[in-house]
């Protein structure tokens, strides 16, 4: 073999070896990629339940922490209620006359209606958040009022600290439902010590007893009497503190299923019902509860939770129609959301007059100013049906199937079925601590 042939032969061998090395390297890279993809897939599969487990664990820890704070407060409030009967025997003589209740679907303008009518402060009174959470009993109200008086004497440092905390920690929630300790709030919060607050659904969303609180008209006689007596006691204590001559103004969407029971307890009550297209109100309500459910380890998009709220709000929708037949026309008005947000002060004042409420000139001016400001408001709360697995057509079919076509016309008889939700037996003992 010549030298040139030998060189060419060696070159071909080297080239072949190089190609083999490249093929081996490529094959090794491919194997590593497949291995990495497999490991990533396995890791993702393993991580999903792990993240869910951690979320549930954090939720249980948070629920335990909240209950550890609530239970002593519940005991204190119940003892304070008992002391009230000893310290203030006049409470039994306080009359709750012609209270005005605002009910309806959540996210349908109930808060707007409440705050507009609360401007008539010469006539109406509503419980602020601090009374509901910290001082439902009369003796507690006087105690906190005394502490507030002493705080003012030294320049109101406690009040300034509270204001700072509200600005610091209330920003996210204020986009959905602005509030402060002095804002009028839903007075069903005052029923927390008596196991009558539907807000417990955030902690126990799979417990049937919590969902039944949304329709006390279907509860047992003993439970209904117990909760109504507690609620009447709350209102009597508030009037004893604020003024016997005032009229209670109460906003509770969760009381939409309480109307007949409230009518038995307060025969001269007045009622405003509000509702909004379910395509808007249902996802808005679920979206507003997202952070609350997440705090306790639950996902608001869980189909069981979504189904529970759809059934509940559908039942409330039909109840608002039924009340047109079962509540006297002089005591009930059903207002669509689109009409309310026009914030027509003349319409609101006319409504109050039709209910027999005398409104002072100062109150008229305050209501007109509040209505003008309300017309400039634009909601910062955004939501979509799809994120909850909901369909607009199906929602409308459920809600509008038996919707009456004209005011006070007869409608197909539809008994509001008791909302059902899958039962989590682990919640039984925990819930019984606050419902007894």
Low-confidence stretches: 172-176, 405-436
Under CATH at level 1, the class of the domain at 88-127 and 184-435 stands as: Alpha Beta
Order of helices and strands: HEHEHHHHHHEHEHHHEHHHHH
- The strands making up the biggest β-sheet line up spatially as 2-3-1-4-5
In DSSP terms, counting alpha (H) and pi (I) runs of 4 or more, how many helices?
17
Organism: Stieleria bergensis
Region (Disordered): 1-37, 406-436
Biased composition (Polar residues): 406-419
Transmembrane segments: 61-81
Chain-wise SSE layout:
Blueprint: H1 3-87, E1 100-104, H2 110-117, E2 124-125, H3 129-134, H4 138-153, H5 157-169, H6 171-177, H7 208-212, H8 221-242, E3 247-251, H9 259-265, E4 270-275, H10 278-288, H11 290-295, H12 303-326, E5 332-336, H13 337-340, H14 345-354, H15 361-374, H16 392-400, H17 428-435
Parallel strand pairs: 1-3, 1-4, 2-3, 4-5
Helix pairs in contact: 2-15
